[in-house]
């Protein structure tokens, strides 16, 4: 081999050694919906910061945005990415036991949701992910969902009649909106803004942090504080990713997940506190006087169905759960 070629080959072979500190870093890729500067980004960044620090940078956590939550979960399942931060929107299509948390008017407030999700019930549902080739790591939060639309002020279910409302790809939510008289149109979040722009749908529903972070005020005029359903988020990982961690690193992993959960919930609280004012400032017409009792009673046939199709005893336990 001519000398020059041999030297070139040596340079190539030695390059990785010369390329920086001798640090064997393992990369973990996390995809999350929504901008980094959002409650969902906060969960991912909170995890990243804590996990890299706790493992002395033996791990590098790479964050990527992907607004198609179904696609993220599929990628975690087949292992092309390690983890996702997603709402429960499409999760019930993978882990049906999760659907119970998507039932409207189930949680009274955030404290109730946190207590159930972090307690024994939420933990037992996280365990059900294993049978579906996923690891349910920890619950995070999207927030209470509210309705927006481009047509009219909505104060009661009667105003919803005939409105085309984008829902998540979630059969519980779709059933709720059809029962309320709307025309539910399921699609991924990534398709939502074009659908609103083109008038394929008239409205959508999401928590305030999502509406604020994605400037949905630019495509929606009316917002009603319906708080019709609590929307959890969840960190889901590939079993291989978690299985490869040493026992000590697995502890760091859970500590980091809790840091992500806290950053996420703190951000939701802050966004919820200032969000209505912010959206009014951006020109939205926000209706606070919503006939919540009418929404609940209109949902009666759907509630009756969920008593049959979901775990009725568990629904009751969740509703009766007391927080002190
Ligand atoms: O996870 O799809 C949705 O409406 C979700 O609430 C949103 O992407 C945040």
Automatic annotation (TrEMBL):
One GO BP annotation of this record: transmembrane transport
PANTHER family from the UniProt entry: 2,3-DIKETO-L-GULONATE-BINDING PERIPLASMIC PROTEIN YIAO, PTHR33376
Pfam families cross-referenced by the UniProt entry: DctP
Signal peptide per UniProt: 1-24
Coiled-coil annotated residue ranges, if any: none
Gene3D superfamilies according to UniProt: Bacterial extracellular solute-binding protein, family 7 (3.40.190.170)
Any GO molecular function: carbohydrate binding
Transmembrane annotation, as ranges: none
Single GO cellular component term: outer membrane-bounded periplasmic space
Record carries keyword Signal: yes
UniProt xrefs under InterPro entries: DctP_fam, TRAP_DctP, TRAP_DctP_sf
Organism: Roseicella aerolata
Keywords for this protein: Signal
Name listed for the protein in its UniProt record: TRAP transporter substrate-binding protein
């Amino acid at each position: 081999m001519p000398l020059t070629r041999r030297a070139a080959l040596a340079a190539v072979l030695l390059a990785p050694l010369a390329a920086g500190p001798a640090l064997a870093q393992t990369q973990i890729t996390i995809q999350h919906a929504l901008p980094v500067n959002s409650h969902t980004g906060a969960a991912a960044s909170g995890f990243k910061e804590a996990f890299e620090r706790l493992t002395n940078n033996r791990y590098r956590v790479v964050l990527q945005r992907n607004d198609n939550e179904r696609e993220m979960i599929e990628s975690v399942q087949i292992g092309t990415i390690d983890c996702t931060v997603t709402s429960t929107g499409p999760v019930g299509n993978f882990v049906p036991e999760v659907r119970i948390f998507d039932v409207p008017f189930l949680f009274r407030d955030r404290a109730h949701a946190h207590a159930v999700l972090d307690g024994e019930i939420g933990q037992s549902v996280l365990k059900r992910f294993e049978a579906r080739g996923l690891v349910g790591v920890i619950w995070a939060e999207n927030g209470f969902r509210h309705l927006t639309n481009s047509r009219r002020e909505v104060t009661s279910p009667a105003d919803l009649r005939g409105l085309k409302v984008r829902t998540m790809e979630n059969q519980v939510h779709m059933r709720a909106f059809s029962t309320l008289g709307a025309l539910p149109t399921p699609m991924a979040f990534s398709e939502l803004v074009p659908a609103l722009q083109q008038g394929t749908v008239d409205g959508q529903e999401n928590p305030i942090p999502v509406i604020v972070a994605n400037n949905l005020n630019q495509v929606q005029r009316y917002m009603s504080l319906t708080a019709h359903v609590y929307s959890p988020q969840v960190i889901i990982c590939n079993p291989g990713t978690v299985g490869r961690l040493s026992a000590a690193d697995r502890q760091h992993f859970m500590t980091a997940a809790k840091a992500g959960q806290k950053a996420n919930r703190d951000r939701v609280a802050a966004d919820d506190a200032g969000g209505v004012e912010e959206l009014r400032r951006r020109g939205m017409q926000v209706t606070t006087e919503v006939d919540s009792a009418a929404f609940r009673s209109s949902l009666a046939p759907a509630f009756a169905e969920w008593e049959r199709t979901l775990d009725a005893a568990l629904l009751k336990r969740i509703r009766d759960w007391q927080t002190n």
